[in-house]
Amino acid sequence: MDVKHNCKCAIFDLDGTLIDSMGVWESIDIEFLSKRGISPVPSDYMQTVAPMGFWRTAEYTIGRFGLDEKPQSLIDEWTEMAHERYSNSVPLKPHAKEFLEYLKAHGILLGLATATMEHLAVPALKNTGIYGLFDCISSTDAVKRGKGFPDIYLYVADKIGVKPADCAVFEDIPDGILGARAAGMYAVGVFDSYSAEKQAQLKQLSDKYILDFAELIK
Questions:
Q1: Which of 116, 156, 107, 152 minimizes the C-alpha distance to 136?
Q2: What helix, strand, coil percent values describe the chain, rounded to 5?
Q3: What Å distances lie between residue 149 and 11, 51, 80, 118, CA to CA?
Q4: Which domain holds residue 176?
Q5: Counting Cβ atoms within 10 Å, is residue 150 exposed (0-12), middle (13-18) or buried (19+)?
Q6: Euclidean distance between CA atoms 191 and 209, whole angstroms
Q7: Going residue by residue through the chain (218 aa), what tens digit of pLDDT does each one get?
Q8: pTM for this one?
Q9: Given 71, 88, 105, which residue is the final one in a domain?
Q10: Residue 156 and which of 9, 36, 93, 177 are 20 to 30 A apart at CA?
């Protein structure tokens, strides 16, 4: 594996990194906001909320659009809209499962650090056949700050029992890479078409950048 010679743990983002799910959230954003008379969805909205986690996204959405609603009601609506798709139809990114199995075969511990709530993430992991590969699964709801900060990566490393310097993090957005590097971890940028406009920034920030997990299977 051409990632980091002393890597003992690989920590993965979920949406846009392991699973091809950003189209699901785009459709949910469109449907959710159109119900409230907001159309089209502002071009920066999806990228802005991507690293936040559900509660922070709900607070941001209420504030930005002046909604007279509570954060939990937004979260409940989003969860209901997403659950069926995460349980049945969201696919893995190319060669993601093969790469995870490759890491496990080489004794690498696996962690998941996602901004998606666990009761959505877990069905997606089970449906795609990769749930049993992970040693720790956690969402940003478990920590104070979102993906632009080191909190979630340090939390997962601590749960697994590995030093930050021995971890590699795989992320598809710049905020994720910044958080991983702030945690003192090796940061691998993963291409996703929904954040293609930030590809140059992702390359610049990452210790390594890949278009496909197949590049790392030797």
A1: 156
A2: 50, 15, 35
A3: 15, 10, 28, 19
A4: 9-21+90-216
A5: buried
A6: 8
A7: 556 667 999 999 999 999 998 788 889 999 999 999 999 999 899 889 988 888 999 999 999 999 999 999 999 999 899 898 899 989 999 999 999 999 999 999 999 999 998 989 999 999 999 999 999 999 998 999 999 999 999 999 999 999 999 999 999 999 999 999 999 999 999 999 888 888 999 999 999 999 999 999 97
A8: 0.85
A9: 88
A10: 93
Per-residue exposure over 22-34, b if at least 16 CB sit within 10 Å of its own CB, e if not: bebbeebbeebbe
Q: Position 112: which residue type? A: L
Q: Could you tell me the two tokens for 122?
A: 């877990």
Three-class DSSP category at 146: coil
Q: Which two tokens stand for residue 153?
A: 């990566």
Same domain, 44 and 109: no
CB 13 within 8 A of CB 113: yes
HSE of 218, CA atoms in CB hemisphere, 13 A? 5
